[in-house]
Amino acid sequence: MILRDLYASIVVFFVALPLCLGIAMASGAPLFSGIIAGIVGGIIVGMASGSQLGVSGPAAGLAVIVLNAIATLGSWEAFLLSVMLAGVLQIGMGYLRLGAIAYYFPVSVIKGMLSGIGLVIILKQIPHALGYDRDFEGDLAFFSPDGESTLGYLVDTLYDVSPAAILVTVISMSILLLWEMVLYKIPYFPDIAGAAGSRRNWYSAELSFR
Q: pTM here?
């Protein structure tokens, strides 16, 4: 059991480290803050929750919110203070058993928000997959500061396609699609992947890094 947990921890480490750094960069936060968020989400939250299965840590969908919050508050320190105050409020609401408030939010609204975030992330990656790198990868907003929209970048991509980038994209997508067919036949690998999270969460993590 300890050996399987060790294998699982190594897999999670190699997935989570670049993910945490990438999301910190996309959020306009110091890179070291991404490492701290990964440690808190992976170790402290895991120990405090008591659940056998959990997903915690930096989320790519919140990168835009964090970036805008830092810009609005004016500094990284002010944003940290707001996060601490939000944490105090959450702890207080937990002690008051106010979690039932979440039931008043329609499931369709939550699913719509997550679907919208996922679509924007996918559309943002298409130009990079084809070799068009005019906009930096961490920009997750639909409208860029220069006024160009994500759909406009997709049209511009057609005039600047890189065969090398397409080759890398095809190879990467092939690895993802053949992941279960090949690696899940390796002894102990299903246990490692299961400890790292469900297959859906695995693919979500792969999509988020981008």
A: 0.51
